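Figure caption, in words: inputs first, then the predicted bound structure.
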Amino acid sequence: MKHTAPPKHFLKDDDLTVAQQAEVLDLAAKMKADPYAYPALAGPKSVAVVFEKPSTRTRLSFDIGIAELGGHSVVIDAQSTQLGRGETVGDTARVLSRYVSAIVIRTFGDDRIEELAANASVPVVNALTDGWHPCQLLADLQTVAEHKPLKGTSIAYLGDAAFNMGNSTVIACSMAGMHVRIGAPEDYQPAPEVLARAAEINAATGGSVVVTEDPVEAVAGADVVSTDAWVSMGMADSEKRIEELTRYQLNGELLAHAADDAIVLHCLPAHRGEEITDEVMDGPHSRVFDQAENRLHAQKALLAWLLRER
Ligand code: CP
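Bound structure (phosphoric acid mono(formamide)ester present):
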Protein backbone atom coordinates (compact mmCIF):
# COMPACT_ATOMS: atom_id res chain seq x y z
CA MET A 1 0.00 0.00 0.00
CA LYS A 2 1.36 3.43 -0.94
CA HIS A 3 1.40 5.83 2.00
CA THR A 4 0.70 9.53 1.67
CA ALA A 5 3.28 11.89 3.20
CA PRO A 6 2.36 12.92 6.75
CA PRO A 7 1.63 16.60 7.40
CA LYS A 8 4.47 18.46 9.04
CA HIS A 9 2.42 19.29 12.14
CA PHE A 10 -0.69 17.99 13.94
CA LEU A 11 -2.28 21.15 15.33
CA LYS A 12 -5.91 20.27 14.67
CA ASP A 13 -7.90 17.20 13.67
CA ASP A 14 -8.08 17.88 9.94
CA ASP A 15 -4.34 18.37 9.56
CA LEU A 16 -4.67 14.65 8.75
CA THR A 17 -6.63 13.55 5.71
CA VAL A 18 -9.52 11.14 6.22
CA ALA A 19 -7.31 8.29 4.97
CA GLN A 20 -4.44 9.33 7.25
CA GLN A 21 -6.75 9.42 10.28
CA ALA A 22 -7.81 5.84 9.48
CA GLU A 23 -4.14 4.83 9.02
CA VAL A 24 -3.15 6.25 12.43
CA LEU A 25 -6.14 4.55 14.11
CA ASP A 26 -5.22 1.24 12.49
CA LEU A 27 -1.63 1.57 13.75
CA ALA A 28 -2.93 2.52 17.23
CA ALA A 29 -4.97 -0.71 17.39
CA LYS A 30 -1.91 -2.73 16.36
CA MET A 31 0.26 -0.99 18.95
CA LYS A 32 -2.31 -1.69 21.65
CA ALA A 33 -2.26 -5.39 20.73
CA ASP A 34 1.57 -5.57 20.71
CA PRO A 35 2.94 -2.51 22.58
CA TYR A 36 6.69 -3.14 22.28
CA ALA A 37 6.82 -4.30 18.65
CA TYR A 38 7.25 -0.79 17.21
CA PRO A 39 10.54 0.84 18.40
CA ALA A 40 10.00 3.71 15.97
CA LEU A 41 12.04 6.23 17.98
CA ALA A 42 14.98 3.92 18.69
CA GLY A 43 18.22 5.82 18.44
CA PRO A 44 16.87 7.22 20.65
CA LYS A 45 15.10 10.18 19.18
CA SER A 46 14.12 12.78 21.77
CA VAL A 47 10.72 14.47 22.00
CA ALA A 48 10.03 17.65 24.01
CA VAL A 49 6.65 17.57 25.77
CA VAL A 50 5.84 21.09 27.02
CA PHE A 51 3.02 22.04 29.39
CA GLU A 52 1.69 25.54 29.95
CA LYS A 53 -1.37 24.07 31.74
CA PRO A 54 -1.75 21.12 34.14
CA SER A 55 -2.16 17.55 32.87
CA THR A 56 -2.29 13.99 34.12
CA ARG A 57 -3.25 11.78 31.14
CA THR A 58 -1.48 13.72 28.41
CA ARG A 59 1.73 14.08 30.39
CA LEU A 60 1.96 10.42 31.40
CA SER A 61 0.75 8.94 28.14
CA PHE A 62 3.23 10.90 26.02
CA ASP A 63 6.11 10.26 28.44
CA ILE A 64 5.42 6.52 28.68
CA GLY A 65 4.51 6.18 25.02
CA ILE A 66 7.78 7.77 23.86
CA ALA A 67 9.70 5.36 26.13
CA GLU A 68 7.75 2.40 24.70
CA LEU A 69 8.73 3.56 21.19
CA GLY A 70 12.41 3.49 22.20
CA GLY A 71 12.68 7.28 22.37
CA HIS A 72 13.57 9.78 25.08
CA SER A 73 11.01 12.29 26.35
CA VAL A 74 11.88 15.63 27.91
CA VAL A 75 8.74 16.65 29.81
CA ILE A 76 8.84 20.33 30.72
CA ASP A 77 6.60 22.61 32.77
CA ALA A 78 6.85 25.86 30.86
CA GLN A 79 6.84 27.87 34.10
CA SER A 80 10.15 26.27 35.05
CA THR A 81 11.73 27.40 31.76
CA GLN A 82 12.44 30.78 30.16
CA LEU A 83 8.99 30.54 28.50
CA GLY A 84 7.68 31.38 31.98
CA ARG A 85 9.80 34.56 31.93
CA GLY A 86 8.58 35.71 28.54
CA GLU A 87 10.93 34.09 26.00
CA THR A 88 8.90 33.93 22.79
CA VAL A 89 7.45 30.66 21.56
CA GLY A 90 9.14 31.39 18.24
CA ASP A 91 12.62 31.51 19.77
CA THR A 92 11.78 28.49 21.92
CA ALA A 93 10.75 26.56 18.78
CA ARG A 94 14.02 27.43 17.03
CA VAL A 95 16.07 26.24 20.01
CA LEU A 96 14.10 23.04 20.72
CA SER A 97 14.28 22.11 17.03
CA ARG A 98 18.08 21.90 17.43
CA TYR A 99 17.68 19.23 20.14
CA VAL A 100 14.60 17.10 19.53
CA SER A 101 12.78 15.22 16.76
CA ALA A 102 9.32 16.55 17.67
CA ILE A 103 7.68 19.08 20.00
CA VAL A 104 4.43 18.27 21.82
CA ILE A 105 2.82 21.25 23.55
CA ARG A 106 -0.23 22.06 25.69
CA THR A 107 -0.86 25.77 25.64
CA PHE A 108 -3.56 28.46 25.59
CA GLY A 109 -4.58 30.27 22.37
CA ASP A 110 -4.11 28.58 19.01
CA ASP A 111 -2.07 31.59 17.89
CA ARG A 112 0.61 30.41 20.32
CA ILE A 113 0.94 26.88 18.88
CA GLU A 114 0.74 28.28 15.34
CA GLU A 115 3.68 30.61 16.10
CA LEU A 116 5.60 27.69 17.58
CA ALA A 117 4.91 25.53 14.51
CA ALA A 118 5.84 28.33 12.11
CA ASN A 119 9.26 28.57 13.73
CA ALA A 120 9.93 24.85 14.32
CA SER A 121 11.87 22.70 11.88
CA VAL A 122 10.49 19.52 13.51
CA PRO A 123 6.85 18.33 13.79
CA VAL A 124 4.68 20.05 16.41
CA VAL A 125 1.79 18.16 18.05
CA ASN A 126 -1.14 19.83 19.81
CA ALA A 127 -1.60 18.36 23.31
CA LEU A 128 -4.59 20.74 23.89
CA THR A 129 -5.15 24.36 23.04
CA ASP A 130 -8.20 26.53 23.63
CA GLY A 131 -9.48 25.58 20.18
CA TRP A 132 -8.58 21.91 19.69
CA HIS A 133 -7.77 18.61 21.42
CA PRO A 134 -6.91 16.39 18.44
CA CYS A 135 -4.87 13.75 20.31
CA GLN A 136 -7.86 13.18 22.61
CA LEU A 137 -10.10 12.58 19.60
CA LEU A 138 -7.75 9.95 18.17
CA ALA A 139 -8.13 8.09 21.48
CA ASP A 140 -11.89 8.66 21.47
CA LEU A 141 -12.23 7.25 17.95
CA GLN A 142 -10.02 4.29 18.86
CA THR A 143 -12.33 3.60 21.81
CA VAL A 144 -15.49 3.81 19.71
CA ALA A 145 -13.91 1.54 17.06
CA GLU A 146 -13.37 -1.12 19.73
CA HIS A 147 -17.17 -1.42 19.96
CA LYS A 148 -18.75 -0.17 16.73
CA PRO A 149 -17.78 0.65 13.14
CA LEU A 150 -16.96 4.35 13.04
CA LYS A 151 -18.76 5.11 9.77
CA GLY A 152 -22.46 5.63 10.35
CA THR A 153 -22.27 5.51 14.15
CA SER A 154 -23.95 8.36 16.02
CA ILE A 155 -22.32 10.34 18.80
CA ALA A 156 -24.07 12.84 21.07
CA TYR A 157 -21.82 15.46 22.65
CA LEU A 158 -23.35 17.33 25.58
CA GLY A 159 -22.61 20.56 27.40
CA ASP A 160 -19.91 23.03 26.39
CA ALA A 161 -19.33 22.43 22.68
CA ALA A 162 -17.81 25.84 21.85
CA PHE A 163 -14.35 24.94 23.04
CA ASN A 164 -11.57 22.45 22.27
CA MET A 165 -13.42 19.17 22.91
CA GLY A 166 -16.58 20.26 21.10
CA ASN A 167 -14.63 21.51 18.08
CA SER A 168 -12.44 18.43 17.83
CA THR A 169 -15.42 16.10 18.28
CA VAL A 170 -17.28 17.81 15.42
CA ILE A 171 -14.32 17.69 13.02
CA ALA A 172 -12.69 14.34 13.90
CA CYS A 173 -16.00 12.44 14.03
CA SER A 174 -17.11 14.00 10.73
CA MET A 175 -13.83 12.79 9.20
CA ALA A 176 -14.65 9.29 10.45
CA GLY A 177 -18.12 9.44 8.80
CA MET A 178 -19.99 9.58 12.11
CA HIS A 179 -23.27 11.36 12.82
CA VAL A 180 -22.61 14.04 15.45
CA ARG A 181 -25.40 15.52 17.57
CA ILE A 182 -24.38 18.51 19.65
CA GLY A 183 -26.65 19.16 22.67
CA ALA A 184 -25.72 22.59 24.02
CA PRO A 185 -27.24 26.00 24.84
CA GLU A 186 -26.89 28.63 22.12
CA ASP A 187 -23.84 30.29 23.65
CA TYR A 188 -22.03 26.97 24.02
CA GLN A 189 -22.41 25.69 20.45
CA PRO A 190 -19.55 25.31 17.94
CA ALA A 191 -18.68 28.41 15.91
CA PRO A 192 -20.18 28.73 12.39
CA GLU A 193 -16.75 28.24 10.78
CA VAL A 194 -16.31 24.90 12.59
CA LEU A 195 -19.75 23.75 11.42
CA ALA A 196 -19.00 24.95 7.87
CA ARG A 197 -15.74 22.97 7.82
CA ALA A 198 -17.62 19.89 9.12
CA ALA A 199 -20.17 20.26 6.30
CA GLU A 200 -17.33 20.22 3.73
CA ILE A 201 -15.89 17.07 5.30
CA ASN A 202 -19.28 15.38 5.59
CA ALA A 203 -19.99 15.92 1.90
CA ALA A 204 -17.15 13.47 1.29
CA THR A 205 -17.48 11.09 4.26
CA GLY A 206 -21.27 10.76 4.56
CA GLY A 207 -21.21 11.96 8.17
CA SER A 208 -23.43 14.69 9.55
CA VAL A 209 -23.71 17.26 12.33
CA VAL A 210 -26.94 18.34 14.05
CA VAL A 211 -26.93 21.07 16.70
CA THR A 212 -29.78 21.32 19.18
CA GLU A 213 -30.48 23.01 22.49
CA ASP A 214 -32.51 19.96 23.54
CA PRO A 215 -30.33 17.37 25.36
CA VAL A 216 -32.92 14.60 24.91
CA GLU A 217 -33.06 15.20 21.14
CA ALA A 218 -29.25 15.01 21.03
CA VAL A 219 -29.07 11.74 22.96
CA ALA A 220 -32.14 9.95 21.47
CA GLY A 221 -30.94 6.62 20.05
CA ALA A 222 -27.27 7.67 20.11
CA ASP A 223 -24.61 4.94 19.91
CA VAL A 224 -22.05 7.02 21.83
CA VAL A 225 -22.65 9.74 24.41
CA SER A 226 -19.77 12.04 25.31
CA THR A 227 -19.26 15.03 27.55
CA ASP A 228 -16.53 17.13 29.15
CA ALA A 229 -16.05 19.42 32.15
CA TRP A 230 -18.10 22.59 32.10
CA VAL A 231 -15.42 24.75 33.67
CA SER A 232 -12.07 24.41 31.93
CA MET A 233 -8.70 25.50 33.22
CA GLY A 234 -8.55 29.25 33.77
CA MET A 235 -12.29 30.02 33.33
CA ALA A 236 -13.56 32.64 35.77
CA ASP A 237 -17.36 32.43 35.32
CA SER A 238 -17.84 28.98 36.84
CA GLU A 239 -21.15 29.57 38.70
CA LYS A 240 -22.84 30.99 35.59
CA ARG A 241 -21.58 28.12 33.43
CA ILE A 242 -22.76 25.45 35.86
CA GLU A 243 -26.21 27.04 36.08
CA GLU A 244 -26.57 27.33 32.29
CA LEU A 245 -25.35 23.79 31.61
CA THR A 246 -27.15 21.90 34.40
CA ARG A 247 -29.84 20.42 32.16
CA TYR A 248 -27.12 18.85 29.96
CA GLN A 249 -25.79 16.72 32.85
CA LEU A 250 -25.10 13.15 31.66
CA ASN A 251 -27.11 11.21 34.25
CA GLY A 252 -29.03 7.92 34.19
CA GLU A 253 -32.28 9.58 33.17
CA LEU A 254 -30.71 11.25 30.11
CA LEU A 255 -28.64 8.19 29.15
CA ALA A 256 -31.84 6.10 29.11
CA HIS A 257 -32.72 7.89 25.83
CA ALA A 258 -29.57 6.55 24.11
CA ALA A 259 -29.26 3.19 22.32
CA ASP A 260 -29.44 0.18 24.65
CA ASP A 261 -25.80 -0.67 23.89
CA ALA A 262 -24.58 2.95 23.94
CA ILE A 263 -21.10 3.64 25.26
CA VAL A 264 -20.21 6.67 27.37
CA LEU A 265 -17.05 8.72 26.88
CA HIS A 266 -15.52 11.51 28.96
CA CYS A 267 -12.01 12.77 28.24
CA LEU A 268 -11.40 13.32 31.98
CA PRO A 269 -10.79 14.82 34.44
CA ALA A 270 -14.47 14.57 35.39
CA HIS A 271 -16.27 16.81 37.82
CA ARG A 272 -18.50 14.09 39.22
CA GLY A 273 -21.92 15.46 40.07
CA GLU A 274 -21.62 18.32 37.55
CA GLU A 275 -21.42 17.23 33.89
CA ILE A 276 -21.62 13.51 34.71
CA THR A 277 -22.97 11.49 37.62
CA ASP A 278 -21.21 8.67 39.49
CA GLU A 279 -23.97 6.35 38.29
CA VAL A 280 -22.98 6.93 34.65
CA MET A 281 -19.19 7.25 35.13
CA ASP A 282 -19.07 3.94 37.00
CA GLY A 283 -21.96 2.28 35.17
CA PRO A 284 -22.02 -0.52 32.59
CA HIS A 285 -22.01 1.84 29.56
CA SER A 286 -18.88 3.73 30.63
CA ARG A 287 -15.69 3.29 28.63
CA VAL A 288 -13.93 6.33 30.09
CA PHE A 289 -10.93 4.43 31.45
CA ASP A 290 -10.42 2.52 28.17
CA GLN A 291 -10.55 5.95 26.56
CA ALA A 292 -7.86 7.25 28.94
CA GLU A 293 -5.69 4.18 28.19
CA ASN A 294 -6.09 4.75 24.47
CA ARG A 295 -4.38 8.14 24.75
CA LEU A 296 -1.18 6.07 25.11
CA HIS A 297 -1.73 3.89 22.04
CA ALA A 298 -3.14 6.62 19.79
CA GLN A 299 -0.31 9.06 20.55
CA LYS A 300 2.35 6.40 20.06
CA ALA A 301 0.84 5.68 16.65
CA LEU A 302 0.66 9.37 15.80
CA LEU A 303 4.29 10.05 16.73
CA ALA A 304 5.62 6.94 14.98
CA TRP A 305 3.61 7.84 11.91
CA LEU A 306 4.51 11.57 11.91
CA LEU A 307 8.21 10.80 12.26
CA ARG A 308 8.19 8.04 9.65
CA GLU A 309 10.85 8.70 7.01
CA ARG A 310 11.93 11.93 8.70
N1 CP B 1 -8.03 14.48 28.81
C1 CP B 1 -6.89 15.13 29.12
O1 CP B 1 -6.30 15.84 28.27
O2 CP B 1 -6.44 14.88 30.38
P1 CP B 1 -5.27 15.68 31.11
O3 CP B 1 -5.73 17.12 31.25
O4 CP B 1 -5.10 15.01 32.44
O5 CP B 1 -4.05 15.58 30.27
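The pocket of phosphoric acid mono(formamide)ester is lined by residues 55-58, 128, 136, 267-269 (CB under 6 Å).
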